[in-house]
């Protein structure tokens, strides 16, 4: 039996200040490369919920191995993140 959780870009409390979202939050956007490639993000709380749920399902006698991508399903570019963050 196996569970594979593929995490996209995880964000939330406790992120190092040199990571993308904290840098944007602190207004340090001048050195970011605002590329056009979108990325998906997922909050750390959702990751923890899914890990706990997966562990709970593991002992079920009808459990089947699976792989799951954890993401919010919304692709966002760095430029879009900066625009949202600076509009608040």
Give keywords.
single chain, 88 residues, alpha/beta, 4 strands
What does this structure look like?
With 88 residues, the protein is an alpha/beta fold. It is built from three helices and four strands; from the N terminus they run E-E-H-E-H-E-H. The strands form two sheets. A two-stranded parallel ribbon has the order 1-4. It has a two-stranded parallel ribbon with strand order 2-3. The longest helix is centred in the middle third of the chain and has 15 residues.
Number of strands: 4
Provide the gyration radius in Å.
Answer: 16 Å
- Largest sheet: number of strands, sense, barrel closure: 2 strands, parallel
State the low-pLDDT regions, or none: none
- From the spread of the alpha carbons, the general shape counts as elongated
Strand order of the largest sheet: 1-4
> How far apart are the termini?
46 Å
Helical amount: 25-40%
Return the average pLDDT rounded to an integer.
84
How much of the sequence lies in strands comes to 15-25%
> What is the N-to-C order of secondary-structure elements (H for helix, E for strand)?
EEHEHEH
SS element count, helices: 3
Structural class: alpha/beta
Summed up:
The chain has 88 residues and is an alpha/beta fold. The chain is built from three helices and four strands. It has helices spanning 20-25, 44-58, 78-86, and strands spanning 3-7, 9-11, 41-43, 66-70.
